[in-house]
Amino acid sequence: MNAHLHSPGRRSNGFTLVELLVSTAVLSILLLVTMSALETMQRSWRETKGKVNQFRNARIAFETITRNLSQATLNTYWDYHYSSTGSNIPPAESTEPPTGYVRQSELDFRITPAVTLGDEEATPDLYPGYALFFQAPLGLSQNYRGLSSLLNARGYYIRYRSNEDQRPSFLPGGVVPVKHRYQLMEYRPPAEQVATPETGSKKGIQGNTVYANENWYKQDLDAVSRPIADNILFMAISPQVPEETLTGTTRKKWWIAPGYQYSSRDTNNATPALDAPILRQDGTLDEGTRHLLPPLVRVTLIAAEEDSLSRWAAARGNSPVDIAAEADAPFDEAEHYERDLDRMKEYLNRQKLNYRVFTASIPLRNAAWDSKTY
After folding, report:
1. Any transmembrane segments, and where (predicted)?
2. Which end of the chain is least crowded, N or C, by CB within 10 Å?
3. In terms of Cα–Cα distance, which of 243, 284, 257, 310 is closest to 372?
4. What is the predicted pLDDT for the residue at 179?
5. Helix/strand/coil for 93
């Protein structure tokens, strides 16, 4: 029987304990690096997807504003003007001849601070920026007739509000908390004079066929407004004229509304009062911008991304913030538009908010200006 002896210099097959420990450590490091990279990639994908979806809604809302605004109209016509009454209504029991012909319109184009839409206690932190209201053939009717030329009012403004009316009734607030956000609202009453008749204690919703009231756009504002985009922090609207019309003058392109506010019923939007046409010494009438649409309207929206805005809002106690005041960007003089916008961007960067600015100058196709008007 032969005995098989191990030679002293021969090693056994297998790994030593040290080699196993080193291999395990290296494998653990590789797995850790891989999982960390995967988690980072997933987080980046979620953030990118969230930003795309968030800003997509803001972009769609911005395109909605620009598309509808470009169709704004006043349906202007010519009528008599009497100096004694300041309108086309002749004085009672008088043979006074009309002073001349002036533009007339029953419609209205209005740009006003959004805070004016609220009650007496409304503040800029609840209604930031500016609001825009106009009429255009946008075809909203309950009867679905003549939609291509049906005249409708439109309005856009920002309001700080909760999402309670958008939540299902069965969803408890304790499980999914109610969110408060800045929402871009669209005012869109139907064309019928009375869309919902008043029955008993239920108040009817007035239509938009009559604009005689100075603040017609406030009628049923909450009832016929709906949010079209969340997390819209600010909106600035500046009526302007084309650059080529300024040749040989000292005027600036924003001269028709140096303080952003604009009313098509006002002769001079540089003053807060509603001015009537002025009778010149030569007997002609100075109508200014009365019953005229601005040739260009520069619209700027500032939209924030949900995740960064949620963190910022939580740090602020989920309370409204007067962003323009904190950024020292009052947006009260059109000549300082670029300065105020830069200050707003700097403020949002300091607050570590992910945001995007949408801006465009929209030509209004129905703005009937001529050489005398410019």
Report:
1. 20-38
2. N
3. 284
4. 81
5. coil
Q: Which conformational region is residue 372 in: left (phi greater than 0), alpha (psi within -120 to 50 degrees), or beta?
A: alpha
pLDDT of the residue at 248:
86
Q: How distant, in Å, are the alpha carbons of 138, 342, 374 from that of 22?
A: 73, 56, 83
- Beta-carbon-side half-sphere exposure of residue 103 (alpha carbons within 13 Å): 24
Residue written as token pair 């029991």: 93
DSSP character at residue 128: -
Say if residue 11's pLDDT is above 60: no
Pairing of strands 278-279, 262-263: unpaired
CA distance 325 to 330: 6
Per-residue pLDDT tens for 189-221? 877 654 555 666 666 665 554 566 788 898 889
Q: 3-state DSSP call for residue 87? A: strand
Instruction: Name residue 371's amino acid.
Output: S
* Percent above pLDDT 70 for the chain: 82
Helix (H) or strand (E) holding 237: strand 232-240
Q: Determine the number of helices (DSSP H) and then strands (DSSP E) in the chain.
A: 4, 15
Nearest partner of 275 among 259, 260, 286, judged by Cα: 286
User: Of 337, 308, 340, 306, whose CA–CA distance to 323 is shortest?
Assistant: 340
226-237: pLDDT as tens digits: 999 999 999 999
Q: How far is residue 266's CA from residue 245's CA, in Å, rounded to a whole number?
A: 21
Residue 132, helix vs strand vs coil: strand
Beta carbons of 245 and 374 less than 8 angstroms apart: yes
304, 231 Cβ separation under 8 angstroms: yes
* pLDDT digits 0-9 by tens, 15-61: 787 888 888 899 999 999 999 888 888 877 777 766 666 688 999 99
Summarize pLDDT for 127-174 with one digit per residue, the tens.
999 999 999 988 765 556 555 567 888 999 999 988 777 666 666 655
Q: Which residues pair with 181 in a beta bridge?
A: 161
Structure tokens at 202: 């239920």
pTM: 0.81
How far is it between the farthest Cα atoms of the chain? 149
Q: Helices 17-69 and 306-315 meet at what angle, rounded to 10?
A: 90
Amino acid identity at 170: F
